[in-house]
Structures are given as structure tokens and as C-alpha cells.
């Protein structure tokens, strides 16, 4: 008796990418596309309606970012299988997606066969991360993570705000902002705030 086809939801805000992935997936006898979504909110709604076996999800989408969408889908179904397929790496971004409940994290430069293999592996209960990203995670495994407040400070610094302006925006003292910045520089191994922003973007802590 033939096993039922794996039912897949594809969420990506780029139409050509979305259709290309759908064409690849649909070419397989054991995988079928049941829904397409153009943003995070639509992805969650389609998941609730279709209850697919697996969701292929981009991280950078309008309406709701990928990590938020992962969390919302996992609230709908605790054992939901989700593969992140994105152009963005960075150990902090990968860690956030995995903590939210993603079972796999792939970059969009993967070969079609690798994506298909990952779909089948995740449906079999395995976790898959691109080798390059695994190395990034290992390289920063013992690094101190930035706190939510430190991320708030860094995002405002990335927009060019002074310590005084950051303090006013967050309702904290300027001296407290300076303390946060010193901690951020130490955690990221940065020379100054510009360097810290560059490192934070590369590692996926913030997006400009």
C-alpha cells in the first residue's frame, strides 16, 4: 500500500521563489503542495485551514516575521513540522527559529535535491541545519546572548540615535544606555557601536 503524500504549505513573499519551490515540490510523487502564502499572517491562516504535514517558511516576510509565524503555528499544533528556507543566516537568527520550534533551517542556495531530502527527513522526525550554519552555531556556542533591552538599545543605535535619544525613547537614563552599550560591545567583541551594529546584523540579532 502506497503511503499518503506529504502535504506541504509554502510561505514566501517573493512570487517567483514561491512558485519555483512549489513546482519543485510538486514534481515528486510523494509530496504535494496544499497551500501557498505570501506573508506570515497568511501562512498561519492557511496552516489553520489546511493542517499540512509540513510548512516551508521564509523568515523575512511582511505582516508577521517568520519567527512569530513559527510560534503561532506551533500554538495551533504543538508538533507542527516547519522548515525555514531563507537567504538570511546568522547564529542568533538560527537559534531564535529553532527555539520557536523550527525543525530545519536551510539557506535558499541549497540544491533542489537537498530541499527534497530535508522535507522527507523532517517528516521522519529528524532535525536538519545547513552545514555552514551548524559551524556558525558552534563558533558562538559559548557566547553571551544579547538581552531584550540590549537589543532595544542596539536597534536604536543602528538608526543613528545618540545615547541621550535612546534613553528618552526607552525611558531610561543616559548613563544606563552607556552601560548597556559597554556590555553590548563586550558581548559582541566590537570596537565601537558601528562595529557592534555590523556584527549584530551579520549574526542575525537585528535587521536594518
Q: Key features?
A:
alpha/beta; 6 strands; single chain; 2 domains; Arc Repressor Mutant, subunit A; 10 helices; elongated; Rossmann fold; 13% strand
Task: Please characterize this protein's 3D structure.
The protein is α/β, with parallel strands linked by helices. The chain has two domains: 6-139, 3-Layer(aba) Sandwich (Rossmann fold); 148-203, Arc Repressor Mutant, subunit A. Helices cover 53% and strands 13% of the residues. The protein has ten helices and six strands. The chain has helices at 15-26, 40-50, 66-76, 91-100, 112-123, 131-139, 148-158, 163-170, 174-188, 193-203, and strands spanning 6-11, 31-37, 54-57, 82-86, 104-107, 128-129. The chain has a six-stranded parallel beta sheet, with helices on both faces. Strand 1 (6-11), helix 1 and strand 2 form a beta-alpha-beta unit. Helix 4 packs across helix 6 and helix 7 packs across helix 10. The longest helix is centred in the last third of the chain and has 15 residues, at 174-188. The protein is elongated and about 65 Å long. The mean pLDDT is 90.
List the helices and strands and how they pair.
Blueprint: E1 6-11, H1 15-26, E2 31-37, H2 40-50, E3 54-57, H3 66-76, E4 82-86, H4 91-100, E5 104-107, H5 112-123, E6 128-129, H6 131-139, H7 148-158, H8 163-170, H9 174-188, H10 193-203
Parallel strand pairs: 1-2, 1-3, 3-4, 4-5, 5-6
